[in-house]
Amino acid sequence: MRPSILTCVLVAVPVVACGKVESDPDAAGPGIDSAIDGASDDATAVDAPIDSSSDGPPADAGRFPSGSYGFENLAQGNPTIPLDISGGGGATFSKPSPNPSDSSGVFLVDCNGDSGAFGFGCASGRQHIPEGMKFVVYAGLNSTRPLEFTFPQDIGAFSVAINTTDSSVRGFTLVGIDASDVDVTSATINSGAISGWRLNRVGIQRASGFRKVQIRPNAIANGVIAVDALQWTSN
What residues does 172 pair with on adjacent strands? Predict the structure, then answer.
């Protein structure tokens, strides 16, 4: 196995993209091996227009053309899941479903007037929220209870801003799943300081597409995950 290199790139728009990006085994791009067979390199996620006709490092979601969602239309509390994230276009926030109505479920934090939740203080942290003043947290994330987003047809790329609410360093995996419920591509990322949340994005891309996306912990249980600023492109 070749040495792994973690690369961060600052590009024209003010975003640094860092993280482990892995492609599917069908047609890996230069320097990218299969994430499924265990032989993979680290590669750079670059904020640039997406080219979903090829595999390899995805464009980090600064300019994804097809869709985006930032939770700004939700009220504080536990949203009902499945949840439409595409304005009637068929894309849904699909798991956990049903969403528990207690602290173990997905919870919408509104920093327009709220003091915060799950260790996140709005007074000091609202300026670091990736999009708007709202985001979701999930305390129930574990190996059997992932976050999941489902699309009505294959998409070519997906990206999301991920962190933890207490600045603890934990690892997460973004997984693309095809229409037959087979894992086909993945990328990993670690959480970090709240002040760097806008830059803490992870993305996946696959030429032949994927139908679902899951966020899974890199351990049996991984504390409270904070998620915002979903973006994707059609295949």
Answer: 189, 217
Q: CA 16, CA 45: separation in Å to the nearest integer?
A: 9
Host H or E run for residue 69 = strand 67-69
- Token look-up 């049903």 returns 98
Strand-pair category, 147-164 with 201-217: antiparallel
Q: For residue 122, give the H/E element and its range.
A: helix 122-125
Q: Does pTM surpass 0.85?
A: no
Q: Which amino acid is at 57?
A: P
What is the C-alpha to C-alpha distance for residues 153 and 149, in angstroms, rounded to an integer? 12
DSSP 206-232: EEEEEEEEEEEESSSB---EEEEEEEE
Q: Which of 38, 29, 45, 54 is nearest to 2 (CA)?
A: 38
Span 102-131, pLDDT tens digits: 888 999 999 997 678 888 899 989 999 999
β 147-164/116-117 pair status: unpaired
